[in-house]
Write a structure and sequence with these properties.
A four-stranded mixed β-sheet has the order 2-1-3-4, sandwiched between helices. Strands 8-7-10-11 form a four-stranded antiparallel β-sheet, covered by helices on one side. A three-stranded antiparallel β-sheet has the order 5-6-9, with no helix packed on it. Helices cover 25% and strands 36% of the residues. The chain is built from five helices and eleven strands.
């Protein structure tokens, strides 16, 4: 036992002599907590409406999260998804889409909710809460950032003259059973509401979904894909292309990426 201990000490001395320079450099470098340099992508979807008086605080919180990225360890990718069921109550939201209403209804089934509501936030398809609940949003985003994710990468994305965005998606792991979904969102918009609960207010939104397309399974192998912006959304401003992989049965998002595209 004594000889083994002496041997360990000898090797420790040799290692110290050989690695002395490296040890000094390490001591001079700033020490960072594990994960400081890694931000895992997290998808945050806000179901909202310009006809809902409770929604502007949630819209503002989403914009703050998008700009400040205030949850440690998370690279938050946001989407504003405007629903249609408020349109009949005094103000037709110019950004509302039936596809967003259907998407929220699907989430309602996944979460066993009695009904849909606004403002509602869904984090990575795995947690839902009131969209203006900042404390809860921080908690759920932080939790989502701890989960393992597929390495989804958008490649060769570009806008064409007909307002179609061409792109490819590559995934580091085998994800052939997951649905590939792509959203085109206007970077920033605003409108002055003339009627309804928010009458007289100027409302501002970020990452407003203008079209969302489910490509189904098996499309994340680098093949060329395309999604087209609707005519009424051709504003000429910047677009966000958001691509994510989701489990169709549970709605859970297992990987997401984003790229900003300038319209000509």
């Amino acid at each position: 036992m004594v000889s083994k201990l002496n041997s360990v000490k000898l090797w420790a001395v040799v290692a110290l002599l050989l690695g002395g320079t490296a040890a000094i450099k390490l001591a001079e470098s700033p020490v960072r907590a594990a994960g400081d340099n890694e931000r895992r992508p997290v998808l945050v979807e806000l179901f909202t409406s310009e006809g809902c008086s409770s929604c502007p605080p949630a819209d503002a919180l989403l914009a703050k999260l998008d700009a400040d990225q205030f949850v440690r360890g998370a690279r938050v990718i946001v989407l504003s998804e405007h629903v249609t069921y408020w349109d009949r109550l005094g103000w037709r939201d110019p950004y509302s889409l039936e596809a967003m209403t259907r998407r929220q209804q699907q989430y309602s089934q996944h979460f066993n909710l009695d009904d849909v509501y606004t403002p509602q936030v869904v984090v990575d398809g795995a947690a839902q809460l009131v969209g203006s609940d900042e404390r809860g949003l921080r908690r759920d985003v932080a939790q989502a950032a701890q989960e393992a994710k597929l390495d989804v990468k958008i490649d060769s994305a570009q806008a064409e003259a007909d307002h179609t965005v061409q792109f490819r998606v590559r995934v580091g792991d085998n994800a052939s059973s997951l649905h590939l979904v792509a959203a085109l969102a206007e970077d920033r918009v605003e409108s002055t509401v003339a009627r309804g609960e928010n009458a007289g207010r100027t409302l501002r939104h970020v990452a407003v979904v203008r079209t969302l397309q489910d490509f189904g399974t098996g499309k994340n192998d680098g093949r060329s894909l395309a999604v087209r912006l609707p005519d009424r959304a051709k504003s000429g401003g910047s677009l966000r292309l958001v691509v994510f992989l989701a489990d169709a049965k549970t709605g859970r998002v297992l990987g997401v990426d984003e790229q900003t595209i300038r319209q000509d």
